[in-house]
Amino acid sequence: MADHASDTLPSATSAGGASAPEAWVGFCLDELTFAVDLRRVVRVLQVVEITPLPGAPAVVAGAIGLAGEVLPVIDLRARLGRPRPPVRLSDQLLIVQAKSGTVALLADTTVGVLSHAPGPLASDNYMPPELRSLEGIFVSEGQLVLVYDLERLLRPNEESSLQAALLAARDNTTPAAVAQEP
Hints:
Order of helices and strands: EEEEEHEEEEEH
Strand order of the largest sheet: 8-1-2-10-9
Number of strands: 10
Distance between the termini: 18 Å
Shape: globular
Largest sheet: 5 strands, mixed
Radius of gyration: 16 Å
Structural class: mainly beta
Strand content: 35-45%
């Protein structure tokens, strides 16, 4: 699905216009499978060079340039308290619309579009704090899938730190200093 930088994902609509999505884009980090609402995914890219972003929160791995914009790259491993391995050429970036704007999520691989029957997801009320950014959990083809809530991707203090870091990067960056889409 995401072997080409030009892959664009179709929009999905819920039956009856309901806001709960029924289609998700699945991606893996280490041995965990996550998903985000298909309607929020703009595209999937092979990883490009990620430029450090001084002053950004720990969950931000750096930034990339895409279509003339500087996008933060979010590595959810930091949110989960996991070590961040070096970026590999096989890694992928999910370009998504989050509350804070367009961001890239770093993933080991994407697993494609996953279906989930309409209805509520399991609650995160009993999740440990590092998993409170989850919208819920479901099972797809026997695999536990953790649904990431893009509205809670960053905490308020992280959003303000990220915005300040991005502003500083835009003010001090030459076009060659930020990786561009191949």
